[in-house]
């Protein structure tokens, strides 16, 4: 493993911040080393400065993409933390379906859900499974489920929907596993009926949200923790702009919006909380 | 000291005996079955960490079937197949069905022990990862309860403070009354 030198930390940390918005504390050198050494070695770099120089001069941005893939963490569980999904099933979806169905337009109610840091797709597929189980006649609604992530690799993996058995068997009950996945050797692949409900694309949460429209439910869990307070403020301000007035926001169970965004109020449902716009 | 339990399945009495002795000597807990049927019976009675089974055995239950039965009963049981050189392809097929490894005949015991140790290492790493996950879940649950309570409390306080501010700014009411109303709101906290 390549060691990062004290005089390299600041430059490399700034570079990672610039390309990803991820703020790496300069005393967490092990994070640089464990996550970026293999990229440096693969490119034949002897040091982190060399990797930095190479990445900056790479017009194709392939190296930058590799670094983003390596530095962004990928949470790999289905139904990670039951709370948000129970909340979705018992409170958020019924309320949104109710609210959107009241319009006497005769059109199919349009419901948009966004997984803002979708990683390799587990969260959005879990949401799709909840919807599939809750809504008996899916064709009566137009559900749009979008997942975004900063890592090309994660987006590609999410789109493919293939998971190894260790990743999948924790968190996902056997009945659901067999209902929504097909075995493929050491892997399980999401079935087409669920795959067809979702879309993944690349998005850096630090950049402007262009052309996303308004969402009814936004999941933005455990990603803002890697940002500075100032960037968190900006992010949740943009999220407030992207959320319908009666929409719902779900953040990570150990996250807080106190001192981050005055535009949301927390509300409790059973053992979870969610946020709505003031 | 080896707490690991191994089930040896082989129809050849000589190999069976040899495996049993060598594994016992290495302090593994060993049981033997002379065919697939006996193996199935033993697997239903108690759990084994590792099943070491011959691929080709007479009768309806061969090595592949033993593998399937063992995995069906307990996903955590690891199966190693023993195969003749000529049937390596079926061994690879077996790996796809969930076998963790295979050994070619004649059995090289150094190799066998090396493979077993590797399995033990992988299993202990997995157990470690599981323990860490569980510890993380517990910590996270405790932390989220605290954070969520604080989040709701802060929101309520903020709401009260906004009300107090509104009362105090209300020009239509005289100063004493404004203060009294504000105090009433604060008293309600």
Short key terms for the protein model shown above:
heterodimer, A: alpha/beta, Chemotaxis Receptor Methyltransferase Cher, domain 1, Rossmann fold, 2 domains, 5-stranded parallel β-sheet, 3-stranded antiparallel β-sheet, 10 strands, 44% helix, 21% strand, B: alpha/beta, 13% strand
Task: Describe what you observe in this structure.
The complex is a heterodimer of chains A (278) and B (189). Chain A is of the alpha/beta class and 278 residues long. Chain A is built from 11 helices and 10 strands. Chain A has 2 domains: 66 residues, Chemotaxis Receptor Methyltransferase Cher, domain 1 (Orthogonal Bundle), CATH 1.10.155; 195 residues, Vaccinia Virus protein VP39 (Rossmann fold, 3-Layer(aba) Sandwich). Chain A is 44% helix and 21% strand. In chain A, β4 and β5 form a beta hairpin. In chain A, α5 packs across α6. The longest helix of chain A is centred in the N-terminal third of the chain and has 20 residues. The N and C termini of chain A lie far apart (49 Å). The mean pLDDT of chain A is 92. Chain B has 2 domains: 103 residues, Response regulator (Rossmann fold), CATH 3.40.50; 52 residues. Chain B is built from 6 helices and 5 strands; from the N terminus they run βαβαβαβαβαα. A 5-stranded parallel β-sheet of chain B has the order 2-1-3-4-5, with helices on both faces. Chain B is rod-shaped and about 105 Å long. The two termini of chain B are 63 Å apart. Chains A and B meet through β9 of A and α5 of B.
Topology (elements, then pairings):
The complex is a heterodimer of chains A (278) and B (189).
Chain A: H1 6-20, H2 29-42, H3 48-57, H4 62-71, H5 82-101, E1 110-115, H6 122-134, E2 142-149, H7 152-160, E3 162-164, H8 165-169, H9 174-180, E4 181-184, E5 187-190, H10 192-195, E6 198-202, E7 215-220, H11 229-242, E8 243-251, E9 264-269, E10 272-277
Helix pairs in contact in A: 2-4, 5-6
Chain B: E1 5-9, H1 13-25, E2 29-33, H2 36-45, E3 50-54, H3 63-73, E4 78-83, H4 88-96, E5 101-104, H5 109-169, H6 175-187
Helix pairs in contact in B: 2-3, 5-6
């Amino acid at each position: 493993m390549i060691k990062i030198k004290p005089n390299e930390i600041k430059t490399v940390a700034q570079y990672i911040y610039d390309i990803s918005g991820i703020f790496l504390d300069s005393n967490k050198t092990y994070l640089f080393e464990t996550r970026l050494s293999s990229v440096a070695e693969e490119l034949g770099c002897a040091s982190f400065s060399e990797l930095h120089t190479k990445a900056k001069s790479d017009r194709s941005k392939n190296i930058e993409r590799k670094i983003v893939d390596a530095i962004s963490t990928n949470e790999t569980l289905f139904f990670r933390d039951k709370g948000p999904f129970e909340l979705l099933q018992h409170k958020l979806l019924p309320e949104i379906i109710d609210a959107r169905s009241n319009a006497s337009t005769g059109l199919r109610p349009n419901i948009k859900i966004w997984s803002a840091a979708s990683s390799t797709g587990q969260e959005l597929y879990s949401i799709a499974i909840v919807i599939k189980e809750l809504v008996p006649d899916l064709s009566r609604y137009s559900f749009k489920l979008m997942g975004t992530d900063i890592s090309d690799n994660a987006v590609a993996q999410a789109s493919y929907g293939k998971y190894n058995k260790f990743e999948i068997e924790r968190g996902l009950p056997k009945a659901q596993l067999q209902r929504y996945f097909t075995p493929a050797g050491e892997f399980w692949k999401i079935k087409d009926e669920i795959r067809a409900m979702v879309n993944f694309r690349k998005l850096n949460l630090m950049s402007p949200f262009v052309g996303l429209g308004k969402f009814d439910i936004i999941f933005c869990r455990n990603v803002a923790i890697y940002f500075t307070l100032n960037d968190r403020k900006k992010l949740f301000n943009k999220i407030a702009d992207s959320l319908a007035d009666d929409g719902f926001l779900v953040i990570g169970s150990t996250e807080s919006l106190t001192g981050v965004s005055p535009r949301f109020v927390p509300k409790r449902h059973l053992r979870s909380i969610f946020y709505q716009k003031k | 000291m080896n707490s690991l339990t191994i089930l040896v399945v082989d129809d050849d009495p000589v190999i069976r005996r040899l495996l049993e002795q060598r594994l016992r000597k290495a302090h593994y807990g060993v049981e033997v079955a002379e065919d697939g049927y006996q193996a199935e019976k033993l697997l239903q009675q108690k759990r084994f960490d590792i099943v070491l089974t011959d691929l080709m055995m007479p009768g309806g239950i061969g090595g592949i079937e033993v593998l399937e039965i063992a995995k069906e009963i307990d996903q955590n049981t690891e199966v190693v197949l023993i195969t003749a050189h000529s049937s390596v392809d079926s061994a690879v097929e077996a790996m796809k069905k969930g076998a963790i490894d295979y050994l070619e005949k004649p059995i090289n015991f150094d190799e066998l022990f090396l493979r077993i140790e590797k399995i033990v290492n992988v299993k202990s790493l997995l157990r470690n990862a599981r323990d860490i996950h569980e510890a993380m879940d517990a910590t996270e649950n405790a932390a989220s309860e605290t954070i969520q309570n604080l989040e709701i409390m802060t929101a309520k306080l903020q709401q009260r403070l906004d009300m107090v501010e509104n009362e105090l700014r209300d020009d239509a009411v005289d100063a004493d009354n404004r203060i009294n109303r504000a105090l009433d709101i604060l008293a309600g906290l």
